[in-house]
Amino acid sequence: MTADCLFCKIVAGDIPATVVHDGERTLAFRDINPQARVHVLVVPKQHHEDAAALAAADPRLLAEVITTGAEVAKAEGIADSGYRFVFNTGDDAGRTVFHAHLHVLGGEQLGLFGRP
């Protein structure tokens, strides 16, 4: 855990979140600023700065994050209609929290992504 990390504080229970899945090594909770009808964040409970760092340090944990994302999509009722997984890595991606996290988005027709 990193003391000044927002998601580490959520994992520790120090900051409340609307949890939708609590696994042994992953936690999923609703985004406080949803960009789609369904917008859930899946985080590894162990701190890793971003998806690239997570992949290098623990590829199995990265796979668990993805598997949890698929479980969340199913539980949220968007598995059949379609959903999007997004990892933001680096400054140009608009990352604001420096703890690896997967966005699970769906529940409506999503637009293209890239340039606004």
Write the layout of secondary structure elements.
Layout: H1 6-12, E1 19-22, E2 26-30, E3 38-44, H2 51-57, H3 59-75, E4 83-87, E5 102-106
Antiparallel strand pairs: 1-2, 2-3, 3-5, 4-5
Helix pairs in contact: 2-3
Uncertain spans: none
Task: Return the structural class.
Answer: alpha+beta
Shape: globular
Mean pLDDT: 95
Explain what the structure shows.
There is one protein chain. This protein has helices at 6-12, 51-57, 59-75; strands spanning 19-22, 26-30, 38-44, 83-87, 102-106. It is of the alpha+beta class and 116 residues long. A hairpin with a 3-residue loop joins β1 and β2 (26-30). The longest helix has 17 residues, at 59-75. The protein is globular and about 35 Å long.
Any key phrases for this structure?
single chain; 116 residues; 3 helices; globular
Briefly characterize the structure.
The protein is an alpha+beta fold and 116 residues long. The chain has helices spanning 6-12, 51-57, 59-75; strands at residues 19-22, 26-30, 38-44, 83-87, 102-106.
